[in-house]
Amino acid sequence: MEAWMTLVLQALALPEFGLSTVFIVALVSATLLPLGSEPAVFGLVKLDPALFWPAVLVATAGNTLGGAISWWMGYGAEIVVEHARHKPTEHRVLGWLERFGPKACLLSWLPVVGDPLCAVAGWLKLPFWPCMLYMAIGKFGRYLVMTSALLWWFPGRFTP
């Protein structure tokens, strides 16, 4: 598995593909696969500081689309599980999400719990477009803060 991942990362090398790499890495990292996209965004911005806003916006779009994929996976999983069980699922976390509704998707940027949160929102059949809006707001904020902070901590242009 590590050899496969190394090949994928080499194929998506930042200097060659730039924003498309950031989009794909951000999309994949928003699914349930364990991958972080902040290093890709930071690396591209360090290589070309003029790409700060395009990188943040492309990463937000990719990460939000990945959240949508997780939402649809949760939606499909709920249908399959409920069909097999023939009884509703009740948990404290599900009740909390139902109470907050799509606004809970603002927390989709959180590590570890954010991506499953998108899937659970689909499971609960929370309205798709409001969920996408709140996911996009939360993910945009994360990329803006993380990339700005990393640029502040590591000033100067990177030259390979």
Automatic annotation (TrEMBL):
The chain crosses the membrane at residues 12-32, 52-75. The keyword Lyase does not apply. InterPro entries: DedA_domain (IPR051311), VTT_dom (IPR032816). It comes from the Bacteria. Keywords: Membrane, Transmembrane, Transmembrane helix. Residues 52-148 form the VTT domain. The keyword Transmembrane helix applies. This is YqaA family protein. It comes from Azohydromonas lata. The lineage of its organism: Bacteria, Pseudomonadati, Pseudomonadota, Betaproteobacteria, Burkholderiales.
